[in-house]
C-alpha cells in the first residue's frame, strides 16, 4: 500500500552570507534559526571561512559568477518572503548583492558584519564604503555599536546616541534601524529600534557569558523569518530579540572556545511544553493518590514545572486554582495549564538563576511540626525571613520571590527545601525544588513520612 504525500506550505527565507565551518555563525546559524522559526531557509554562499569557537583561520571569497549562479537558482524557483545579508567580505560582493537588492520583492534585513565576536576582521576596508548603497535598499539594518561607528561616525553609548545613529542610517535610505546594545557596557542590554515614526526601546538583563558567537546572525535571521511569515516590523523585532535573549541565556557548550549561542533554544522550549504539563499532571496524580493533606497549606498547594529554557511564569505549567484539601483527601481544583501559577512559578524561575537544572517545585505547609520533620531529614534546607526584606524590593519587578530565592540560593549547594517564615498576613511556607519528577515526588513523600512518624 502506498501513501499519498501531504505537502506542507512554509514561507521561504534567503540568506546571502558566508559559511562558518564551526557551525555557530554565518550561513549555518541563519538556516538553523530560520528552521526554528518555521521558515524554509535557502542560501547564497559568498565566501567560505575556516573558523571555530576560538577564531577565524582563513576566508575564501567565491567568484562573483558562482555567487550569481546560486542567486539565480534560488530566485527562479522560490517565492521569497524575506531576505537577509550577513558577512559579505569584499566591496565587490557588497556591490553585487546591492544589485540583487534593487530588484527584490521582499523585505531585506542587512546585518553589516564587519568583525567576528573573536575580534577577527571579516570585511575589507573598501567594503565599508560600499555598504551605503546596500543600506539604501534595506527594510531594516541591524548594526552593533562598532558597526554603527564605522557606518555613521556615531558610537552609541546609550539610548540617545543609539537614536542618533539610527536616524543617520535612515537618512542613508534604510526604512528602519535596530541599534544593538550588546557591545555597550552595563548591567542592562538596550536595543533601540528607530523608524521614521520614532523609536522603540527594548531592555533586558545582560547575560554574563562569552558564548555570543553567532548572536548577530541569529537575531537578523529570526527577524527575517518573522517578516517572511508576514509579521509587522516591530513585532518581528520583538520576537527576534526574545529568541536571541534565550539563545544567549542558554548557550551551547561546544568547542574549546567560549561556545555558541543556542539557535534552537526557543524551538526546544516550545516542543517541551506538552511533556512538561504531562509531568506536572503525573506529580499531581501521585499526590492525590497518596493524600498529602497534612502538607497542604491554607492557601492551597501547587506543583509547578518549568520548560527547560523557561524565562517567564507563562512558560511554567501548574494547577489552575491549586490543590486543596477536601473531606476525602486532596484534589486539584482544575486542570494543569501554563501560566496558572504566579507565586511558586516566580520562585522557581528565580531559583533557576542559580541552578538552571531545577525544573519543578511544590509549596507545602510550614509550622513547628514540619520544621521538626525537616530537621530529621538528611536535606540541605535554606530559609529566608521576610522581616529582613528591603521595602523597595516588594515593589520591584523581581518582588519577594526573587529576593527570597537570592537569600536561599546564594551559597555553594542547591537546597532541597526553602523555608519562607512568612509575616503578618502571609502564611509561612516551605517550598521543595527538584530537577525531575521522581525527585520532587520522593521529597514530598519523604517529608510526609517524617511528619507522620514524628
Automatic annotation (TrEMBL):
Keywords: ATP-binding, Kinase, Nucleotide-binding, Transferase. GO terms for biological process: thiamine biosynthetic process. Residues 280-444 form the Thiamine-phosphate synthase ThiN domain. SUPFAM superfamilies: AraD/HMP-PK domain-like, Ribokinase-like. InterPro entries: Aldolase_II/adducin_N_sf (IPR036409), HMP/HMP-P_kinase_dom (IPR004399), PM/HMP-P_kinase-1 (IPR013749), Ribokinase-like (IPR029056), ThiN (IPR019293). One of its GO terms (molecular function) is phosphomethylpyrimidine kinase activity. It comes from the Archaea. GO terms for cellular component: cytosol. Residues 20-262 form the Pyridoxamine kinase/Phosphomethylpyrimidine kinase domain. Pfam families: Phos_pyr_kin, ThiN. This is Phosphomethylpyrimidine kinase. It comes from Halococcus salifodinae DSM 8989.
